[in-house]
Amino acid sequence: MLRIGSAVFCVFLAAGGRVALAFDQQDREMEWLAKSKGCNICHGPESTGSKDKVPIGPAWKDIAKKYKGQKNAADRLTRTVVTGSEPGSGGRHWKDQARGVAMPSNTIAISEADASKLVRWILASDKQDANNRAQ
């Protein structure tokens, strides 16, 4: 019985390792996509934590927290990534977390499909962080 329990536990650990590797691979792909499309010029994974060093755009983790559980958030944010935001809207929504500059249109820089992938990855970052802490 002990051998069976140990074997099941080892299979469980191996499967968890594959899940972690899948997250790592997806993270690398999405980080490369964000960098290649210029997203990291204004955004980063985490906020600076300093009011003196406010980034141009909000951090991905801040975006994930703000839109967590909101219906159609991925579709709305994908549209914002592709078409841009209204001038001044950044100041209203991201006070003290970003400089308040409107997001420019990125129609030429990124396809809607790639924008959607990035947005969904960003919105899932809270969930992934929780999974990584549990492993």
**CATH superfamily grouping:** Cytochrome c-like domain
Helix-strand category? mainly alpha
Low-pLDDT runs of 5+ residues are 1-22, 130-135
**Beta-strand fraction estimate:** under 5%
- Overall pLDDT, averaged? 75
Shape: globular
How much helix is in the residues?
Answer: 55-70%
Secondary structure: number of strands: 0
Termini Cα gap: 26 Å
Radius of gyration: 18 Å
| DSSP helical segment count | 6
Strand count, sense and barrel status of the largest sheet are: none
CATH architecture: Orthogonal Bundle
Query: What count of structural domains?
Result: 1
Identify the CATH class.
Mainly Alpha
CATH topology: Cytochrome Bc1 Complex, Chain D, domain 2
Order of helices and strands: HHHHHH
Overview of the structural elements:
- The protein has 135 residues and is an all-alpha fold.
- The protein has a single domain, classed as Cytochrome c-like domain (Cytochrome Bc1 Complex, Chain D, domain 2).
Layout of strands and helices, then pairs:
Blueprint: H1 2-36, H2 60-67, H3 73-83, H4 89-93, H5 112-123, H6 125-134
Short description:
The chain is mainly alpha-helical and 135 residues long. The chain is 60% helix and 0% strand.
